[in-house]
Amino acid sequence: MTTTASYDVESNRHTFALNLIDFPPELERATVGLVDRLCGVVPVWCRTLTIKFGDCDEDDSVAQCHVNQTYRFAVITIGSYFFSSDDADRCEYLLHELLHIATATLAEPVRSMIDDLTDDLPRATQKAMRTRLIDGLEQTVQDLTFAILPLITGDDA
Ligand SMILES: [Zn+2]
Hints:
Blueprint: E1 4-10, E2 15-21, H1 25-38, E3 48-53, E4 63-68, E5 73-78, H2 80-84, H3 87-117, H4 123-153
Parallel strand pairs: 2-3, 3-5
Antiparallel strand pairs: 1-2, 4-5
């Protein structure tokens, strides 16, 4: 059975809906508090942020993010490892995922363009281009995370 808890999150720029799916009740408040702290990086086009409690597609991932800019929503999945981390790490991991939403304005058109332009090319070419995009995107998102995190937490990274 799926459970959903819904909240309105107000940043200094806009208000968006936050849905928490299948969260253990004891983790709900901490997660809402974390989103409240980090909500300023959620872009104004994002109307609904859903955070699912569950397993990521890749076993070694702490969290993952799916963005649908067309329909103005994003879905982040976080699991038990996320919550076994300390507050500072949770803040970093969630900020990283939220920055995937913020960078989607550039990343998603490039991803679509790679798919369109490599449709008739060998799979290895398509895979190589996607891998380069993902590597560059992860580095950019992580650099932004390291730059922004101290501004939010007041700590030096
Ligand atoms: Zn990432």
